[in-house]
Amino acid sequence: MSSPRWLLQIQATIWRCLMNIGFGLNSLQSPRTPSYDSIKSFRTGTYAFTGPGHQLNLYFYLPKDFDAKRRKYPVVVNFHGGGFTLGSATDDRRWAAAVLNETTAIFVSVEYRLAPEYPFPICVQDGCEAVLHLAANCEEYGIDPERIALTGFSAGANLAFTVPLMLQNLFGIDCASSDRLPGSPSFRIVSIVSFYPVTDFRISRPSKRASSKRPEKSLPRIVTNLFDASYMPDPANVSSPFASPSAASDDMLRQALPFENIAIYCCEWDMLHAEGTMFARRMEKLGKQVEHETIPEAVHAFDKLPRPMGVDPRIGPIYHKACTILARALDTKSLKASAAI
Predict the structure, then answer these.
(1) Within 10 A of 193 (CB to CB), how many other CB atoms are there?
(2) Are 247 and 241 in contact (CB under 8 A)?
(3) Is-above-0.85 flag for pTM?
């Protein structure tokens, strides 16, 4: 029997409070994480989806040399994790710092709406609206819309794939096409970097847990049950490619995702390790150039856990590898390496 929505909302509120405490402790670890430079808000429903609209916040982290009047900057659009139920746009400040230090990009973190208040597909739609808004207002923000990268963690890593899949479906064009629907902004996604992504809701939680090398190290059932019931109240949606990118057809994946500069980093002791690895291998078979790596003896969200002895030493090297991929994609204008939407 499924839990009533009001009960899920109470549970989510409690877990959000606990998560905020954890991230507060994480931010105190040395080196300290930077604060965002500004928050830009816009109303959804302008570009792709009809309805009453919602005020969506974008958190901007700017390069030290930022000057929108003198040049246009590539942009990294980031989606935080939290099972589509928890988390906030400021959770990935350490990742933002790495991107600012190692690339020339603006970093924008999306405060998408959360379940159970806003179940699937609301957050995917919010992600699409964010990309479209940035592209349509590129002059104001100093953004080069031909150099956009998507990044994310866990649920956010899922959005890094499902957002371009939904955008491609909305606009119905091939990645090699230069055509646009009337009134749609022009932009190009040149890279996707995902950390421990959710890629297949069709696989049951017991099966995912059983596939883990260390099931006892997986997220507790009380948390995963909350995530699944909150985000996916209708079981029929698990087969949607906008929920499970692994459910997308080969043609959808070919058209929606970049040809190269895709990275998938999985955690060895994570219940999502097997599905992330399978998704990476499938994209390789489709001819895409994918950087896939398993982080040894790492649990889910290892880089977000507070540690009394300081920041996990594995974070720096893996973030550096990811930033190298971003820099290669964003700091050149190779159209071959990109997917046009």
Answers:
(1) 28
(2) yes
(3) yes
